[in-house]
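Sequence in, structure out. First:
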Amino acid sequence: MGVGVNPRGLGSAYQGALEATLAVVISVLFGVWLDTKFDASPAFFLTGLGVGFGAFILRLTRLLREVGRSDDEEGGGGEGPSDPAPRAGATGIEASGPEDKLGSAPRSEPHSGHEHDRQRDNEH
């Protein structure tokens, strides 16, 4: 097993993939059986194929949600679409000054040096 792989989650993924595949196979076989029974050649086959494919997509969608949820509960385990985006300003470096309500250090205006010149001119 690789680093960070959950065997229980992997088993659940295989089970979900098997269920999704079997949904298509069983639906198609049932459609073929109905076609032979009622002599309606492609109608039930195509219906079974559509129902099976719909069940396939639905099961895989649920499987992806389950796998994403189990990754979140276990603390992630790598980068991927289920990982939340980093917060703005989350650099890992903490500000050393006072912080405002948002948790970031207040910004100061750039110092051009002209303020000192204005003070000196006002004094003379």
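Second:
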Amino acid sequence: MKGAKSVFRSDHIRWRVHAESPLARAKNGDARADVQGVASFYTMYWKKPMGKTHLAICTNISCMLCGAYQLYNYIKQTYHIGNGDVTPDGLLSLEEAECLGSCGTAPAMQVNNYEYVENLTLDKLKAFLKERGL
């Protein structure tokens, strides 16, 4: 199973290879169940195309107590998308994250699996979205 994780790293196409695809199995010879196991365990391996800007908002206890659901619901209501959805234009997708490991700077949001935005407020979120042209 040494190469299964690398199969899914496909940032140039903005999503990860589906675990059941022939490409995923053929690339490293792993069994379908092994590839599916890796893909389903790690949340950063998307199973479908996501938006150009993918937002994962942590709603675990620290973030929740600091207003994460207000931020998450703002995006849901403003862009008419839910957890795992993509806007019709493909520019934005949303995910409710279990924990981003940023409890001391809650609430936190992860952008495209790389960038963290911490100490997030509604004003800071609106400015971020405007800056991204969303």
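Remark: The two ends are 39 Å apart (CA to CA).
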